[in-house]
Amino acid sequence: MERRNPKVAIQRGYAVLTADQARQIALEWLKAGRLENAIALGLPEVDDRYHVWRVPLLGGVSGERIGEVVIDAYTSLVVENRSTRFDVLEARLLGRPPEGTPISRRSDRYLLSSLRNIVALGDCEEILMELPAQSVDLVFTSPPYYNARPEYSEFLSYEDYLDKMRRVIRQVHRVLNEGRFFVINVSPVLIRRPNRQGQSRRLAVPFDLHRIFVEEGYDFVDDIIWVKPEGAGWALGRGRRFAADRTPLQYKPVTVTEYVLVYRRRTDKLIDWNIRTYPDQEAVRQSKIIGDYDRTNVWYIQPAYHPVHPAVFPLELAEKVIRYYSFKGDVVLDPFAGVGTTGKAAWKLERRFVLIEKEPAYVDVIREEILEWMGRAALEVLYFNCDPPQVRQGLLF
Ligand SMILES: C[S@@+](CC[C@H](N)C(=O)[O-])C[C@H]1O[C@@H](n2cnc3c(N)ncnc32)[C@H](O)[C@@H]1O
Fold first, then answer.
1. Same domain, yes or no: 70 and 155
2. Could you tell me the pTM of the whole model?
3. What is the pLDDT of residue 6?
4. Are 265 and 218 within 8 A, CB to CB?
5. CA distances (Å), 55 to each of 15, 28, 34, 154, 217, in order?
6. Protein residue whose Cα sits closest to atom 10 of ligand 1
7. Quick one: 317 and 209 in the same domain?
8. Which amino acid residue places its CA nearest to atom 15 of ligand 1?
9. What is the mean pLDDT of the chain?
10. 3-class secondary structure, 106
């Protein structure tokens, strides 16, 4: 293809005369696809054989060329059918292989993920399908609470809830790298009595999920008990009856713990293999946990509160899990991200993150708060199905 000095634009009488003008048009086009913060523009070139400007689009971790915008030099309009489509750009940013490429990445080497930081709005079961196989190095999450009351629950029944969890756990298995960990914070759920004659029930959600994990190809590794300071569960009312009349059989302890269950994606390789074959041995050294650490499976941590979200986990909990189960630079996924606590901890500890949340109100919180915890870098995050954060004057820098 013949490419000429931009002076040719003047000789030909084009409407688009300079590289800056071409860039501006390309930027507006990217904005229409909400990709302006995820993609950088390369040097525009005029191609006077076809009377167009070509603007390279750069993205991904290494800023490689992932497409181009073609602009009609006479009309200054983007030639849509000759420019790289938005969905193709998004797929390339996510590192998804082109259609037809075999998914399997089984090898004797551990493969470093090329995923960038992502905040995605939507159902994680669907969004996970967009991620490449084995592109995540750690999962830390707390699943939605099952509520038996139809007016609060999106699930028809507890079985329906477990089915959904199974489908998500299965999808996560596909994206999780070989031999790496899925850590889940989960607790039994109290189903209040329907009326004065009825009984309250507790659903043993962690034990039901355990079976699903094992069936879906994970090995059980540890059950860590997160202990909250005493008094934490008293408000639920459980235990008050016994406290008053002390009759045996009525005994019900106040719950001050939650489970942090640790699973490993099943493999015949030892954890030592994960460490030895990790391609970035400097990251392994840099990630060593120096000084004090939790020597037992009982972790004492204050619960957290958030003004918008009713069930966030503490940043300290996410930090411990990420420190113990990942290396610097790893990708940490939270498929039920809430207000993004996992992402905040991952960023603080120099890991990458993939946050998926289906409630727009919580994604809005992430988009608002991300500027506080990431600063300028928040503009380079890939926002999938949602707008990038709004930068207000004076807030960022
Ligand atoms: C227990 S909260 C997680 C809170 C989070 N750990 C934090 O600190 O903010 C579970 C979250 O999962 C979200 N959720 C439920 N079903 C989902 C789905 N199918 N896909 C993505 N998110 C979902 C809920 O909206 C809720 O915010």
1. no
2. 0.75
3. 64
4. yes
5. 16, 12, 17, 46, 46
6. 144
7. yes
8. 144
9. 89
10. coil
| Residues 239-265, mean pLDDT to the nearest whole number | 92
Ligand 1, atom 13: closest residue by C-alpha? 336
- Assigned domain for 234 exists: no
Asked if 87 and 154 sit in the same domain, the reply is no
How many angstroms does the Cα of residue 338 sit away from the middle of ligand 1? 5
Is 208 part of any domain?
Answer: yes
Nearest to 95 by CA among 138, 64, 69: 64
pLDDT(103) > 50: no
Is 312 within the bounds of a domain? yes
Find the helix packing angle between 360-374 and 341-348, rounded to 10°.
Answer: 20
- Ligand 1 pocket by Cβ (under 6 Å): 123-125, 142, 144, 309, 311-313, 336, 338-339, 341, 356-359, 362
Q: Tell me if 247 is assigned to some domain.
A: no
What is the band of 151 on the pLDDT scale with cuts at 50, 70, 90? low
Q: Give the SS3 label for residue 273.
A: helix
- My answer on whether 327 and 180 are in the same domain is yes
Same domain, residue pair 333 and 211: yes
Name the closest-CA residue to atom 3, ligand 1: 338
CA of 289 to the centre of ligand 1 (A): 29
Same domain, 60 and 177: no
Q: Are 371 and 309 found together in one domain?
A: yes
Domain residue limits at 35:
7-93
Rg (CA), the chain: 25
From 130, 154, 358, give the residue whose CB has the most ligand 1 atoms within 8 Å, as the site to mutate.
358
Q: 37 CA to middle of ligand 1, Å?
A: 25
Q: How many angstroms does the Cα of residue 186 sit away from the middle of ligand 1?
A: 12
Domain count, the chain: 2
Residue whose CA lies nearest to ligand 1 atom number 8: 312
